[in-house]
Amino acid sequence: MMMNKKHHYLRIGLDYHGVINSDMPYFKCFCQQAIARGHKIHILSGGPEEKILNKLNEEGFEFTKVFAIFDYYNKKGLACRLPNGEFYVNDQLWNETKAHYCRQHKIDIQIDDSPVYGKYFTTPYCLYDHKQKNCRLIWDKKTIDIEMCEPQLAVKMIEDIFC
């Protein structure tokens, strides 16, 4: 299964909470391998962005861009901090935001652990299972299991599907 691409690189979206932070050493290597091969890595998170950036930089991650839902809506005046210090954004807005970001930034594949977000995506969405170390991609009316084996092999499997 191949897609016609106008560029030689992929734009890969990676969720932070539940994906990257479930296995930091693995995804650090995955990001390094993908970027070394010319791909772009967009890390999508609930946020806040500053906290995610600090952790990624502390761990020595390579990435192209970080996007945080909280910061996006906070700038629009649609987020608030609760008395317990947590933040709140309307559930509908929150759940569809990563899908909107991926369409807007022409992300080729989003790897995420939330089945709730998947229904909003037109971008190929790969549901990640950190216990099984795999990702189930439902795309083009087919289901493809991507084994998140050695990071360089996982990047190659994604290339084989999308390049």
Task: Give your account of this protein's structure.
- Residues 1-6 have low confidence and may be disordered.
- This protein has helices at 24-36, 49-59, 69-75, 91-104, 115-118, 151-162, and strands spanning 11-15, 40-45, 65-68, 79-81, 87-89, 109-112, 125-129, 134-139, 142-147.
- The chain has 6 helices and 9 strands.
- Helices cover 37% and strands 26% of the residues.
- It has one domain (11-162): Rossmann fold (3-Layer(aba) Sandwich).
- A 7-stranded mixed beta sheet has the order 3-2-1-6-7-8-9, with helices on both faces. Strands 4-5 form a two-stranded antiparallel sheet.
- With 163 residues, it is α/β, with parallel strands linked by helices.
Number of strands: 9
Provide the domain count: 1
Strand content: 25-35%
- Total of DSSP H or I helical runs spanning 4+ residues: 6
Q: Please bin the fraction of helical residues.
A: 25-40%
* SSE order: EHEHEHEEHEHEEEH
Kindly report the name of the CATH homologous superfamily: HAD superfamily/HAD-like
State the CATH architecture. 3-Layer(aba) Sandwich
Write down the CATH topology: Rossmann fold
Question: What value does the average pLDDT take?
Answer: 93
Strand order across the biggest sheet?
3-2-1-6-7-8-9
The Cα radius of gyration reads 15 Å
Quote the distance from N terminus to C terminus: 9 Å
Provide the structure class.
Answer: alpha/beta
Overall geometry comes to: globular
CATH class: Alpha Beta
